[in-house]
Amino acid sequence: MGNHSDGSPNHSGTVATAGQNDVEKFQDPGLPPHRLRLADTDPKAAKRAERQVAILFGVSIVGTLIFLGAYFAIDLGVDSTIATIRNQNLLLGLGTAFAMLGIGTGIVHWAKALMPDHEVSEERHAIRTEEDRQAAVRIVDDIVEETGIKRRPLIRNTLLGAVALAPLPAIAVFGDLGPRPDDKLAHTMWAPKDGKLKRLTRDPDGTPIKASDVTIGSAFHVIPEGLNELHEGKLNEKAKAVVLLMRLNPDSLKITPGREDWSYNGIVAYSKICTHVGCPVALYEQQTHHLLCPCHQSTFDLTQECKVIFGPASRPLPQLPIAVDAEGYLVATSDFKEPVGPSYWERDEHERRINS
């Protein structure tokens, strides 16, 4: 009683002090009782679960085959109907769904019904010694053994088949994105044919353009002469060859050495295909002499040979060298000196070939 008679907090019991009511050690509650599954006690149930897993893997294989069959067997030509396209898309979607769901649900069902599910508790320790490393390797080997994949060939074989076929739809889809560009973007219809220079014509009617038609501040959407006469590949050729034609005050143009004869009295022509992802550059600001791509706002300065001044584009628009023929019509003196469109792999190699 004497120790508490002064009423101080430290002696009155109102404030807890260090060491008060210490528990010597936290008691490990241990693991809960393990509940056996039906497959653990009944061999018939385990065999049934094994067949179910194999069936799910088989569903994945069938789904992949459905995808491949629809992809390669259904030919979507120029005369394809909407019904044909719809049916192919339906089969492609169903095939992909069955392929992915089959292998996913099969693995989950395998883990829940057949793989060991014993709870394990062990002390945390760092793996540092060679003995510990070997122990870790043995643990991995034990896990592989406990999955039962070695003694369940039906599951193993169907899983291998499903895994082997599962990437094929993705490979087919990516393969259908088209061949590598190689030098296809380095050659357009602007190249002279049989020594004859191509005239610049209005898009879409193909009317030739005279230099006198292009006034300061004006802009023309241009295609090469003869494009409208093509019966095959017209759209592909147009996609590479479309050009914007504009006229500025010649004094405002900053021309690099070697390009003095690429323009005519302030008239310049540049590829209409944005060097970012290939959208058509169609907005011309007359006051600032800027060309804008509406897709991602890349901005090119016409006075600086379409140098990129804003946006994600990585290089200027390719310039088309032009001149005037004896009749006063604008003509392309050569093809573009570099590949048109977005930057892509091996582009530098193609530029070296063109310039060599």
The top level CATH class name of the largest domain: Mainly Beta
Structural domain tally: 2
Number of helices: 9
* Whole-number mean pLDDT: 84
Beta percentage is: 5-15%
CATH superfamily of the largest domain: Rieske [2Fe-2S] iron-sulphur domain
Choose one word for the global shape.
Answer: elongated
Write down how many β-strands occur, each being a DSSP E stretch of 2 or more residues.
10
Mind telling me which CATH architecture of the largest domain this is?
Answer: 3-layer Sandwich
Radius of gyration: 37 Å
Instruction: For the largest sheet, list the strands in their spatial order.
Output: 4-3-2-1-10-9
Helix content: 25-40%
Map the helices and strands.
Blueprint (H helix, E strand, L loop, with lengths): L8 H4 L25 H4 L1 H31 L8 H32 L16 H18 L5 H13 L1 H9 L22 E5 L16 E6 L9 H8 L1 E5 L19 E5 L11 E3 L4 E3 L6 E3 L5 E4 L11 E3 L5 E3 L14 H9 L1
Antiparallel strand pairs: 1-2, 1-10, 2-3, 3-4, 5-6, 6-7, 7-8, 9-10
Helix pairs in contact: 3-4, 3-6
Describe the protein.
The chain has helices at 9-12, 38-41, 43-73, 82-113, 130-147, 153-165, 167-175, 234-241, 347-355, and strands at residues 198-202, 219-224, 243-247, 267-271, 283-285, 290-292, 299-301, 307-310, 322-324, 330-332. The protein is elongated and about 95 Å long. The chain starts with 8 loop residues before the first helix and ends with a helix. A hairpin with a 4-residue loop joins strand 5 (283-285) and strand 6 (290-292). The strands form 2 sheets. A 6-stranded antiparallel sheet has the order 4-3-2-1-10-9. Strands 5-6-7-8 form a 4-stranded antiparallel sheet, with no helix packed on it. With 356 residues, it is of the alpha+beta class. It has 2 domains: 38-119 and 129-175; 184-355, Rieske Iron-sulfur Protein. The model has no long low-confidence stretch (mean pLDDT 84). Helix 3 packs antiparallel against helix 4 (82-113).
